[in-house]
Design goal:
A: mainly alpha; B: 587 residues; mainly alpha; two-stranded antiparallel sheet
């Protein structure tokens, strides 16, 4: 008797490729969705099309890069506090 | 039904816990918060249970909409947490949890600063037990540091309360209007428990070392009790806007660096409390409502996240991302519930985070606080990065480390399912929550197309960045140094300095006095008869015309005679007699 095959859907390379495509499509759709939304930009600089998308992308990239930078200073071995 | 403080139920319950055995005990502890929830729902507004203490009026039950909304969520969360803990047979943890949750309710319903302080300290001690109950070397150290930090914070609070009472003559806990030493010290005491940097390191240090259920329970009460006290006492203090904004970003940066899944969640508490503290600082009625609503929703989804991380720890015994991964294959329900919590913390439309956090962000716009708004938007994107995606991705997907633990037990899943339901329910239909908010009616409409589209853009692009930058986010087996470095390394350095100073002083004194001086006196006394005889007899011996070797030889003979006890009795007696004469002359 064959042992039951394990559920490994998300390990398959073709699935991961599809998920990547899906992610790009969803990102695109959220930006396209703005065409149908009536936004109320409040501060002026946030008035351009796709502001939230740009903000999301830039701020997350900046947060990651910044954390990598402080990591140089703050990372320590796990036994750092052990005497 | 006569009203009484909910804390009474919890303390009586805690005292009765040892009476029960086996599953009956678990049923019993589930019933206590359920009963307390009903009690709170029926409490009449007003102050009661007033006691006179040293000439001051203590109020143990002050009921208004603000205390009630926190009362609801504290008991609701306790109910779910005890269902989650149904597998647990450790009475110590149940008793500690009941005291902890009960005293958190004690703080929320306290009408004056003295009784508030009393429950504040009980919370600190009881919560420490939930950390120590893990019974590992690390939890022992972390629990010790945790309680010390909270005792220092408590002392700061006490000093502030004493100043406040001496200046105002009242103990009532209302919104602080004066800015003086007393109110600032009280604020610092509150901010320690709110985990505001740089006073926050206890949280990320201690919570991840707590037990499986201890972590779930701890994640809710200490910081949210502090948020309650800030809403009550410090609405509109602008400094809180700065502190809150700092907290939102601080939590994200550290959570991005972390490897331990429960430490990721601990840092994300700091991030989330930052939103609430900012809301308190903005201080408009709707911003305060937002802070209360966000605390309400946050407790639910954060508990849910700690529950799913706890289930993983319970089943695998591991909590480092580098050891985990690939668990979607064997823990699908834990994954699904955990992901709902992760979406809710990220304010994904359709979840409770979206209907509560946006209340605060909208108020930053209404008050034209451009920088505050920008920071909160950036932090919202960052939440999805560190808690929304990072936590589920590295625990349940990423690299398969070959762990096949199987799904966790049913009561854990039931508790998670309940909390996940609440996350979605309040996300789809927030009106019941809006109706119990304390400061005026809420007519906020979260679901406009423009809100939803903007939020989705922010979050989906954040997700894109996560996967594009994945190589930079690969976990390493490291820790990140935080402000606890100062008291952990500083404490040790102080220990070494004190050790070197006092122990060397001690050793020097020991050498000089105990060994040196006493030894010399001792040796002198022991040899006294022989020496005295030698001094007395040698000149006489010399008079007989002997010198050189003969004299030395004679001295040795005397010494030898005394050492061996062979000296004629008369000599000893004569020497003793001479000493008596000498003492008499010197008198």
């Amino acid at each position: 008797m064959q042992p039951k095959k394990e559920f490994d859907y998300f390990d398959r390379p073709e699935v991961i490729r599809k998920l990547w495509i899906l992610l790009y499509i969803v990102c695109g759709l959220t930006v396209v969705g703005e065409l149908f939304a009536h936004r109320h930009p409040h501060f002026g600089f946030d008035a351009f099309f796709g502001f939230s998308a740009v903000l999301g992308f830039v701020s997350c990239a900046a947060l990651i890069l910044f954390s990598k930078l402080v990591a140089l200073l703050l990372k320590a071995r796990e036994d750092y506090y052990d005497d | 039904m006569t009203d009484f403080p909910p804390v009474v139920l919890f303390i009586l319950g805690a005292l009765l816990v040892p009476v029960f055995r086996g599953p009956a005990r678990n049923w019993f502890v589930i019933l206590i918060p359920a009963a307390a929830f009903l009690l709170i729902a029926n409490l009449q507004a007003g102050a009661s249970w007033q006691v006179s203490f040293l000439g001051y009026e203590l109020t143990f039950l002050r009921v208004d909409k603000l205390s009630k909304v926190f009362g609801y969520i504290f008991t609701l969360n306790a109910f779910a947490a005890f269902i989650y803990a149904f597998y647990l047979r450790d009475a110590t943890q149940h008793v500690a949890a009941l005291f902890y949750i009960g005293s958190a309710l004690g703080v929320v319903f306290a009408g004056d600063l003295i009784s508030l302080y009393l429950f504040w300290e009980i919370m600190a001690v009881a919560s420490t037990m939930l950390i120590l109950a893990r019974k590992s070397q690390k939890s022992l150290g972390a629990g010790f540091r945790y309680v010390l930090v909270h005792l220092v914070g408590g002392l700061c609070l006490l000093a502030g309360i004493l100043f406040f009472i001496s200046q105002t003559g009242t103990t009532a806990f209302e919104a602080m209007t004066e800015r003086n030493l007393g109110t600032w010290l009280i604020l610092i005491g509150f901010l320690v428990n709110a985990a505001a940097p740089p006073l926050h390191a206890w949280l990320a240090d201690a919570y991840p070392e707590a037990t499986v259920t201890g972590g779930v329970i701890l994640s809710a009460y200490t910081t949210k009790t502090a948020v309650y006290t800030l809403i009550r006492g410090y609405p509109g203090w602008e400094i809180l806007i700065v502190i809150g904004c700092l907290m939102t970003l601080y939590g994200i940066v550290y959570a991005l660096l972390e490897n331990d899944m429960r430490r990721i969640l601990a840092y994300s508490i700091i991030n989330q409390v930052g939103f609430m503290v900012t809301g308190v600082g903005i201080g408009t009625a709707m911003a305060l409502n937002g802070a209360a609503a966000h605390a309400f929703c946050h407790i639910i989804y954060k508990s849910l996240l700690w529950m799913s991380a706890g289930a993983v720890l319970y089943m695998t015994g591991k909590s480092r991302c580098t050891d985990l991964g690939g668990l979607y294959k064997t823990m699908p329900w834990t994954l699904i519930f955990g992901t709902i919590g992760a979406l809710a913390i990220s304010s994904f439309p359709g979840t409770s985070g979206f209907t509560s956090k946006t209340l605060i962000i909208e108020q930053s716009v209404a008050q034209h606080l451009v920088w505050v708004w920008l920071v909160l938007e950036i932090a919202s994107a960052g939440v999805f990065l560190h808690a929304g995606i990072k936590f589920p991705y590295f625990v349940f997907f990423a690299k398969d480390n070959g762990l096949r633990p199987g799904e966790t037990n049913r009561t854990m899943l039931a508790a998670m399912g309940f909390m996940a339901f609440l996350c979605i329910f309040l996300g789809v239909y927030p009106q019941p929550l809006y109706d119990v908010l304390p400061f005026g009616e809420v007519h906020y409409q979260a679901y406009t197309l423009s809100h939803v589209v903007s939020q989705l853009q922010l979050l989906m692009l954040s997700a894109l960045v996560f996967f594009l930058f994945l190589p930079l986010l690969k976990r390493t087996e490291t820790i990140s140094l935080d402000t606890d470095w100062f008291y952990r390394k500083g404490g040790r350095a102080a220990y070494r300095v004190v050790d070197a100073l006092f122990n060397n002083l001690n050793r020097a004194c020991d050498r000089m006095l105990a060994q040196g001086l006493t030894g010399a006196v001792n040796r002198f006394a022991a040899n006294a008869p022989a020496r005295a005889s030698s001094w007395l007899l040698t000149p006489i011996y010399r008079l007989q015309g002997r010198n050189g070797d003969a004299v030395d030889n004679f001295r040795r003979r005397i010494q030898h005679a005394f050492d061996a006890g062979l000296a004629p009795l008369g000599i000893s007696a004569a020497v003793s007699g001479l000493f008596v004469v000498l003492l008499f002359l010197l008198r």
